[in-house]
């Protein structure tokens, strides 16, 4: 059975996420957040979350190792839905084959860095485990979600 997911409805002026929906959440954001529950990761450049009291204006945002998806991907731009293709083969395989690493190897190799921040954006020295040095080359191409393997 799929896991039970608890979702809280919170104030109207908050940023929704997969566990907390703003009480005035729009349909596009709702769909984006539900797709997180289905196993998909964010594919947009983070501009709102600074790292350790920094701001995006200072150029040091969190999650800068995230692979960007195609511009019309719902996981990159939730308002792209209805404006052409918005789910790709990598997305579909993650949703319908959630426990199949063989089918999802390419997607997972990029998505695993979606919530990591590089050493330079953390203002630490480069180290062996810096995500910026570990992101596979194919993840740097916005089409990484178009091919499932």
Description:
- The protein is mainly α and 149 residues long.
- It is built from 4 helices and 2 strands.
- It has a two-stranded parallel ribbon with strand order 1-2.
- It starts with 7 loop residues before the first strand and ends in a 15-residue tail after the last helix.
Produce a short descriptive summary.
This protein is mostly helical.
Question: What labels would you give this structure?
Answer:
mainly alpha, 2 strands, two-stranded parallel ribbon, 23% helix, 149 residues, globular, 4 helices
Helices, strands, pairings?
Blueprint: E1 8-10, E2 20-22, H1 27-37, H2 89-96, H3 101-111, H4 131-134
Parallel strand pairs: 1-2
Helix pairs in contact: 2-3
